[in-house]
Design brief:
- By secondary structure, the protein is an alpha/beta fold.
- It has a single domain, classed as Aldolase class I (TIM Barrel).
- About 40% of the residues lie in helices and about 15% in strands.
- The protein has 13 helices and 13 strands.
- Strands 3-4-7-8-9-10-12-13 form an eight-stranded parallel β-barrel, surrounded by six helices. It has a three-stranded antiparallel β-sheet with strand order 5-6-11, with no helix packed on it. A two-stranded antiparallel ribbon has the order 1-2.
- β3, α3 and β4 (about 85-90) form a beta-alpha-beta unit.
- α5 packs parallel to α6 (about 190-205) and α10 crosses α12.
C-alpha cells in the first residue's frame, strides 16, 4: 500500500471518531488546505466512457451532497473520481434542518441524513467554480430549490441560467426527502412543467455557452411502477438528456438499531438492491440509449458492475467514500479492470444493459 493510500485509510478511520457532521466539516476544511494527498486511479482505457459530449476516464463519480458549495472540487478530483457532482445548490443560502441531522449505521455500512439543502447559495458556488476555470476534470452542478420558495421550479430554472457557463452537466434534484413537498415534483403534471421550463432555460444558454449543457433529473427509489411510467413518459416527451437513479430512500426495510427510526434519507449498502431494481425498470421503459447515472449502495467493484449491467452508463458513490476513504475509487476501478479481464471484455461500456431483465423482473422491495 502506498503512503497516500495508507493516509486515505487512516484519515477515514480518524474522521469516524467524530460525529458525522463534524467529520464532514473537518474533511472539507482539510481539503481546502490543499494538503490532502492525491489518490490517482491507475489508467485503464477500457474503463473510459463517452457520454453526451464528455469523455469520462472511468465510470465512478462522486454524488452530490459531499461538496455542497463547490469548494473542494479540484481536491476531490485528485482523489481519483472521474467527475464530481456539486450541490444541491439553492438560489439563496439556507441553514437546512436542525442538528443533529446525519447518523451513521456502521453495522449496515449506511447513513441516514436529513440535511435539507443546507448551503451558501448560487453566488458563493458560482464564485468557487469560476476560480477553477480552465482546470481539468468534469463537474456536474446539482440544482435545488429553497425550502420557502413560492415557485420551486423557478429556482431550478434560475440555477440553470446561473451555472450554464461552468457546468459540464446539470442535475435537477427533485427527489430529496428532506425538503417537504419536494418529491411532489415527480408527479406527472408537475414533472412535465419542470422539465419543459428547465429545458427551455438550458436551450436559452446555448448561444452564450457554445454547447447544449446536458440536463438530467434525479429521482427517488421510492417510486411505484405507475410512478415510473409517468416519469419515463415525461422524460421521453420533453427530450430530457438523462436520469440519475437514485436518491436516498425513506424505507427502513431490514434496518434496526438505535438510529433506524431517525427521519431522513437512508443511503449506503441497504439501498443497493432497491435502487438497482428501480434503475433496471426505468431502463426498460426508456429504451437502451438514454443516459442513466446509477447511484445507491455501491461499495465494491462487483456492485459497480451489477449497477452497470442493470442499465447504468455512469456511476456515483458517496457513502462508501465516507467509510472507505479515498481508496474507494481506486479499489472499485481496479476491481472493474479485473472483472473485464475475467469476462474477456474490451470495454466497460459493453457491460451496460447486459442484465436489465434480470434486475427489472424483481419487485421493488417494500
Amino acid at each position: 500500500m502506498s503512503l497516500a493510500s495508507l493516509l486515505g485509510t487512516l484519515s477515514a478511520r480518524l474522521l469516524r471518531q467524530f460525529d458525522p457532521e463534524t467529520a464532514h466539516i473537518l474533511a472539507i476544511t482539510a481539503m481546502k488546505t490543499g494538503l490532502v494527498p492525491s489518490l490517482p486511479v491507475a489508467p485503464d482505457p477500457r474503463l473510459a466512457v463517452r457520454l453526451f459530449d464528455l469523455a469520462f476516464p472511468h465510470p465512478i463519480g462522486l454524488a452530490a451532497g459531499f461538496d455542497k458549495n463547490a469548494e473542494v472540487v479540484s481536491t476531490l478530483l485528485r482523489q481519483g473520481f472521474s467527475y464530481v457532482e456539486v450541490g444541491s445548490i439553492t438560489p439563496r443560502a439556507q441553514p437546512g434542518n436542525p442538528r443533529p441531522r446525519v447518523f451513521r449505521l456502521p453495522e449496515y455500512q449506511a447513513v441516514i441524513n436529513r440535511f435539507g439543502f443546507n448551503g451558501k447559495g448560487h453566488a458563493h458556488a458560482l464564485a468557487c467554480l469560476k476560480k477553477r476555470a480552465g482546470q481539468p476534470g468534469l463537474v456536474g452542478v446539482n440544482v435545488g430549490a429553497n425550502k420557502d420558495s413560492a415557485d420551486r421550479t423557478a429556482d431550478y430554472v434560475a440555477g440553470i441560467g446561473v451555472f450554464a457557463g461552468v457546468a459540464d452537466y446539470f442535475t435537477a434534484n427533485i427527489s430529496s426527502p428532506n425538503t417537504p413537498g419536494l418529491r411532489d415534483l415527480q408527479a406527472r403534471a408537475a414533472l412535465d412543467d419542470l422539465i419543459a421550463r428547465c429545458v427551455e432555460a438550458r436551450d436559452a444558454t446555448i448561444a452564450t455557452v457554445g454547447r447544449r449543457v446536458p440536463l438530467l433529473v434525479k429521482i427517488a427509489p421510492d417510486v411505484s411502477e405507475e410512478g415510473l411510467d409517468d416519469i419515463a413518459e415525461v422524460t421521453l416527451k420533453r427530450g430530457l438528456d438523462g436520469l440519475v437513479i437514485s436518491n436516498t430512500t425513506l424505507s427502513r426495510n431490514g434496518i434496526g438499531g438505535p438510529h433506524a427510526a431517525e427521519t431522513g434519507g437512508l443511503s449506503g449498502q441497504p439501498l443497493f438492491e432497491r435502487s438497482t431494481i428501480v434503475l433496471a425498470k426505468m431502463r426498460q421503459r426508456l429504451g437502451p440509449d438514454l443516459p442513466i447515472i446509477g447511484v445507491g449502495g455501491i461499495a465494491t467493484a462487483d456492485q459497480a458492475y451489477e449497477k452497470l449491467a442493470a442499465g447504468a452508463n455512469l456511476l456515483q458513490i458517496y457513502t462508501s467514500f465516507i467509510y472507505a476513504g479515498g481508496n474507494a475509487v481506486a479499489d472499485i476501478c481496479s476491481g472493474l479492470s479485473q472483472r473485464l479481464d475475467r469476462e474477456g471484455l474490451s470495454s466497460i461500456t459493453a457491460v451496460t444493459n447486459s442484465a436489465v431483465a434480470r434486475w427489472a423482473d424483481r419487485p421493488i422491495p417494500g
